[in-house]
Amino acid sequence: RCRHLVSGYAIDSLSQEEEQEKEVAGSGGGGTWEVVVVGGRKKQRRRKGQKKVVVEVDHGDELDGDGGHERQREHPFIVTEPGEVARGKKNGLDYLFHLYEQCRELLIQVQNIAKDRGEKCPTKVTNQVFRYAKKVGASYINKPKMRHYVHCYALQCLDEDTSNALRRSFKERGENVGAWRQACYKPLVAIAARQGWDIDAIFNAHPRLAIWYVPTKLRQLCHAERNGATAVPAVSSSVSARTDHVTF
Amino acid sequence: RCRHLVSGYAIDSLSQEEEQEKEVAGSGGGGTWEVVVVGGRKKQRRRKGQKKVVVEVDHGDELDGDGGHERQREHPFIVTEPGEVARGKKNGLDYLFHLYEQCRELLIQVQNIAKDRGEKCPTKVTNQVFRYAKKVGASYINKPKMRHYVHCYALQCLDEDTSNALRRSFKERGENVGAWRQACYKPLVAIAARQGWDIDAIFNAHPRLAIWYVPTKLRQLCHAERNGATAVPAVSSSVSARTDHVTF
DNA sequence: AGAAGGACCAGTGGTCCGTA
DNA sequence: AGAAGGACCAGTGGTCCGTA
């Protein structure tokens, strides 16, 4: 239950490669730790319609004869009930929420360092915090994952009973994580409706939630729901595809 | 005294070129307006040690046969007493401070638009605000200028008497704007000292100042002054040159 | 020499899509 | 098919330095 978090902070910058050896992967919701290092290499991806020439650079056999190691991916999440430990190569939702608490601790450390140095002090979980997470060995924390599930954590913060009920219901029905994640939007929009639709204010009023950016899609859903129940695209499909872009 | 500010807001994006015709330059501190359009073109600058090949692209004789116009630069600031109107091709410090108030109004407009659209709402004067300023014709507002004098405006907000006294003193001694600007740091650091050194908190506590980012140099001076009066580099020289960079 | 501001650049927020 | 996350990209904060 008590997660390991490398404490203290080192002083100099650190490349991603330097991290590759000390891999730590969280397991279920329990206290187990697996340390895994696996081989293999990745290729660059190519962006759609990017047409640009990609030069394949081979980093193999460089100075460090040791060769590269590939970081093991975290086990996928499954829908678990509150308190339930995921079995097999899966992680449960208590563990997911725990990662958000860990990010908060990391942010606090980053803030303290910044204050000490007289530098500007982040109030949100920024890239700097994710970089710091890597640096102190919490390499299982990454931006795309944390941003992906922010609204799920928001529901957990703002209405734990509803969050728990949703988990039980989706587990019972054998739904996958993606379906559960989608379903988290609706009760949040309902909360926003009760509180005057200001989702930013709702996030900022909650001490653990205030450090997270409001996810774009949640913001859009609140906006759409407020402006007439007309043509509200059920929480399933992508709102962003329908967004008119009008800027200055 | 009552400055013109284009009201209402247009809907689509606007390139910089489209702005070039409706140039409005503020004059002194009075109510005069000069509308100036002058000819000429600029070249790209080349960055120091950049060695990269620069392709000169000629945009002349494009669709709009009218040809390009060059924006007239704003008149330089001179040190004026409170209430004093700058004469000749100069702008006074009341006008400088007025620009900060105008930025605040522009930010409020940008915020209202964002709220209407359900988009994220800036709390500070961001690039978006400067872009909006250009769009509504306030092309005499630009980021480098506003950032350059933020701490001078901060002093004006936080201690108007000291700010006024400093202006009178520097005018009397015939000092130029740069010297006055430098001198604004010291009383600000003194204010910070009295209030526990938290310059961010000081900015945020003031309604008109809270929308401005704390300037790097002011932050550094506060930090240096707090950490022992030892080796504090008189406000004159660059602090940034002495800054150790230690990041993650 | 003193000053205004176009334009650059490192690092951000946001998330796509090649990967497993 | 479902999911994790490396890596990309448009637009940011910050300010240098070519310009007048």
TrEMBL record, chains A, B:
Family: Belongs to the FLO/LFY family.
Superkingdom of the source species: Eukaryota
Organism: Hibiscus sabdariffa (roselle)
Range of the intact protein held here: 133 to 380 of 380
Comp. bias intervals (Basic and acidic residues): 53-73
Main location, first listed in the record: nucleus
Subcellular location: Nucleus
Protein name listed in UniProt: Floricaula/leafy-like transcription factor
Location of region: Disordered: 49-73
Keyword terms: Activator, Developmental protein, DNA-binding, Nucleus, Transcription, Transcription regulation
Functional summary from the UniProt entry: Probable transcription factor.
Positions of the Floricaula/leafy DNA-binding C-terminal domain: 64-230
Residue stretches spanning the membrane: none
